[in-house]
Amino acid sequence: MELRHLRYFIAVAEELNFTRAAEKLHIAQPPLSQQIQHLEAELGFQLFRRTKRTVQLTAAGQVFFEEAGKILQQVDRAIQLGRQTSRGELGQLTIGFVSSAAHNVVPAILQAFRTRCPAVKLELHELTTNEQLQRLRFGQIDIGFVRPPVEEEGINYEIVFRESLMVALPETHHLADRAKVELRELSTEPFILFPRSLAPGLYDPIVSLCQQAGFSPRAAQEAIQMQTIVSLVAAEMGVAIVPASMQNFQRSGVVYKALPESTSIVAIALIWRSDPTAAVQRFLEVARQISGLEIKD
Fold first, then answer.
1. Cβ distance 216 to 203 under 8 Å?
2. How far apart are CA 32 and CA 89, in angstroms?
3. Cis (ω within 30 of 0) for the bond into 149?
4. Contact 250, 230 (CB under 8 A)
5. 120, 92 in Cβ contact below 8 A?
6. Lowest mean pLDDT among 138-147, 165-174, 243-252
7. Confidence class of residue 265 from pLDDT cuts 50, 70 and 90?
8. What is the largest CA-CA distance in the chain?
9. Amino acid 126: pLDDT
């Protein structure tokens, strides 16, 4: 028995007329009658009662009609789901992101992807760059938003966002009323820094910026989340140099100041394995379409 036999049978059952069913199927009537007879012989029971004037389903034929319809609906659904999956419109994506990316490019990309591919389930994990690289290698995430550079064999990356750096000060700081702060004025201040081992792409530009101003920052505290760094600044434990998008993190007790000498730019990159699934490819398409690479101040 083939699926076409079921489709032939259902057409006849719906029309209760072999001629009309044949026209509907775009085949000749004699071959259709022959196919139904072969189907009945294979099943071992009669599907139709035929007279010269009427065609009616038998009791067994009625039950077979109802179940055959369910089978074809399931087959059609399987075909549809397969096509959607092959186009990256169905499935699940596990996405990692560094905490600071939640305040810049990630929300816009996720919103656009959900709009275009609502049937793809997204599972989000806030992770450091190193944690994402490790999980990506072992297939525990599909995509990551990290701080470059990325130098891992078998892992692709692409910059999706760039921004400048700013200084975060406690609101009680004596420079808090300034429109801009020169970095050399902070040379004696305790700094709250992100560990270099977890994100050299963020740590190195910050230290380089301080060295250009004539000093090396004195680390009073390290924290692995940008929100924690800003909260420690609010607690007056030190000052911090942070990506400009951290201004979007509303935290009382902190003020953000531009650095006139700042020429350092930090970035967010997407990472994925070299053998991307259709859903990953679709996500990359959306990210490329909506991510602007202009510098955010």
1. no
2. 38
3. yes
4. no
5. yes
6. 243-252
7. confident
8. 105
9. 93
Number of Cβ within 10 Å of residue 56's Cβ equals 12
**Confidence label for 296 from pLDDT (cuts 50, 70 and 90):** very low
Neighbours of 202 (CB within 10 A): 24
What are the tokens at 44? Answer: 């071992």
Coil, strand or helix: which one is 125? strand
Quick one: DSSP state of residue 159? Answer: E
Angstrom distance (rounded) from CA 246 to CA 229: 10
Kindly report whether the global pTM for this prediction surpasses the value 0.90: no
Q: Quote the CA–CA distance of 85 and 212 in Å, as a whole number.
A: 51
Specify the DSSP class assigned to residue 108. H
> Which residue in 83, 90, 43 sits closest to 67, CA to CA?
43
**How many Å apart are CA 196 and CA 11, to the nearest integer?**
69
d(CA 156, CA 102): 21
Give residue 292's pLDDT.
64
Q: Which pLDDT value is given to residue 263?
A: 64
Q: Which residues pair with 145 in a beta bridge?
A: 97, 270
Provide the token pair at 85: 């999956």
Find the Cα–Cα–Cα–Cα dihedral 151, 157, 163, 165, rounded to 10°.
Answer: -20
Q: pLDDT grade, residue 133 (50/70/90)?
A: very high
CA dihedral angle for residue 223, residue 241, residue 231, residue 227, rounded to 10 degrees: -70
Looking up tokens 């990325």 gives 150
